[in-house]
Every structure is written in C-alpha cells, then in structure tokens.
Amino acid sequence: MEQKINLLDMTIEEISKHLEDYGVEKYRAKQVFQWIHKGIGSFDEMTNIPMDLRQKLKDKFYIGRLEIQDKLVSRIDGTVKYLFKLIDGNIIESVLMKYKHGYSACISSQVGCKMGCKFCASTGAGFIRNLSSGEIVGQILAMQKDQGIRIGNIVIMGIGEPLDNYDNVIKFLKIVNNKDGLNVGYRHISVSTCGLVPGILRLSEENLPVTLSISLHAPDDETREQLMPVNKRYSIDKLIEACKIYTEVTKRRITFEYAVIAGVNDSKNDARKLAHRIKGLLCHVNLIPVNTVEGTDFRQSDRQSIERFKKVLEEHGIETTIRRELGSDINAACGQLRRKVIENQ
Ligand code: SAH
Hints:
The protein has 345 residues and is of the alpha/beta class. It has helices spanning 12-20, 27-38, 51-60, 133-147, 166-177, 197-204, 221-227, 230-233, 236-250, 268-278, 303-315, 336-344; strands at residues 5-6, 61-62, 67-73, 80-85, 91-99, 102-106, 110-112, 127-130, 151-156, 189-193, 211-215, 254-260, 283-289, 320-322. Helix 10 (268-278) links the parallel strand 12 (254-260) and strand 13 (283-289). The chain is elongated, with a radius of gyration of 21 Å. Bound molecules: S-adenosyl-L-homocysteine (SAH). S-adenosyl-L-homocysteine (SAH) binds next to strand 10 and strand 12.
C-alpha cells in the first residue's frame, strides 16, 4: 500500500496539486489547509468539505498531530515544558512561555543534535534524524490546542541545529507564516544557530525577515573551540564576516547569544575582546546565565560578573540584555528533559 502523507508537511500549493487528481476546485486546498492549522484532529471535523472528498483525503493523507508524552508546569512562572512523541516513537521537547505581550514557543528542529556543544544537554544522546516541517508546525499546534491559546512568537531554540535541517526549517517558516494557517509574522520568529556559515549566507538570500540569533558564547577561537566543536570548521572571524553580510543584505539586526560561564568566558577582558569583535555590526547581545547541565562542570557566573560584562559591552556602544530565566524548576533549558527520559529508558 502507498504510504500516507502527513498533511501538516504540505503547503497549500502542494495540497492543491494532489487535489487536481480528484478534479476538485482549487479553493478546496485552501480550506483543507485552514482546517489542519486550526488544529483539528480528524477529517470529519472538516464540515465544509463534502463527504466524498473527506473520504478521498482519508485514503491518501493523515493529520500528523503530536502526542503529549509528558508535561511539566513551572510553579514559579507558569512555563510549560512538553515532551512530544513522534509517529516513529522518537521524543522531542518544546517549551511554552508566557510573556506580557503573549505566548512564545521554543521548538525543536531535529531529534537530537550533531553539533556537540559541551554545555548543552541536547547533544548527549546524539543525533537521530531531522524533523519534517509538519513535525515542527505540529509542536505549535499541539501546545495551542492543549492550552486553548494562540502562540504569537516562535523561537527555534529547542533541540537541534535548524540550519542543519535547512530545507524543512525554511518550509516550516513559510507554512507557519501563511495567513490561512497560523499567520505568525516573520518578525516574531527567531532562528538560532551555532554558526553554520553557509546556512547563514543562504538564509540571507531568502528574503524572510526573521530574527537571526547566533550562539557565540566566547570572544576568541581558543575558548570557543573548547565549548563548541563547530568553531573548528567556522572560526569566529568567518562567522562574524557571514553575520556582516547577513545584516547588509537583510538590514536586520542580529542577536548574539552569550551563555555566561563562571571562570570560562565571563571576565572583564572577555567582554572587551567580544566588544572589539562585534563593534559596528548591526547587533544586540543577549547574556544568558548558563544552565548547569548534569555531568558538566560549567557553573553560572554570579550576578555581579554578568552585570560587569554587560557594562563593558555597553561602554562600547553595544546594546545588551540579560535573559530572564524561565522554568528553572522544570529543567526548561534545551534538551534537559528529553535526556532524562532517554537515560531512564
Ligand atoms: N542549535 C541552535 C539552536 C538550539 S540551542 C543553536 O546552537 O543556537 C538554543 C540556545 O541555547 C543556544 O544559544 C545554545 O547555545 C543555548 N544553550 C544550550 N545549552 C545551554 C545551557 N546549558 N545554558 C545556557 N544556554 C544553553
């Protein structure tokens, strides 16, 4: 038998192509797309689609909703961490955060990760596979449905390296932005990368005004190589050069993520070195108190050192924020929960 296709993986145009075979009108594809992005779970809920077409759809497609395997709610701030089970049994994580201006989702782009950053919990269990665009959209739909809310902001900062799953991530961005779907503005979406230079250059040409976040985490190659093996492939110079091109082509401000780690990258001198590297670039720095992951010796810098770091950057005219920690009681950081589950299996 022919394998069924996940409708969530498809654009309106792709659905339309399939429907041509049935000789139905074009606007039906849009109706189907609208239904599945409203979060319905079965074809019978598509009340404006004729029964015979619903049957044909059932024969060819499925709606790839994600199953909630587990859910943790932070007692401190209401942040919700989800573990989702994919159709092949693999598990991914997503996080829902509530801000004054609405809900923000942190979603995964791969099952596991190849990048090997030393401080990150996602890497421990290795890489399994890419997520399809529908599995990325599915995370948003499942969280919206579970909470009865609308998600207005998306950060691709969960498990995985989005630019290592380039085509599916781009397709996801276009699907989630579609006005007949979730209609999330590109400006409300951040794509975070550990620094895959060819992907950054390619993204600059897509004409998608998303926010690009670069996980920099160190002011020099020696330190960065120890933390992030990807730096051996793309040095800081190459990375900053790509960022410069990105800002010139897109006119969009880049965010540099910098996880502050006690005694590793948090000195005044580190801050000065960083300032000199990124000075003049259209950017902003986000300092993140590193989350201590079991099995690593990385510890959070104290508040004073983080404030001192910020002050040095600001003295050099670099806009800097310190990220508020959400969900600290539920292991909300990247990959931590999935890792626990895998280790217990
Ligand atoms: N692969 C992408 C996106 C996923 S990681 C990237 O590297 O950007 C999302 C962010 O969380 C990255 O900035 C990553 O460096 C950061 N991160 C991972 N582990 C962390 C930890 N233990 N503490 C603080 N930030 C962490």
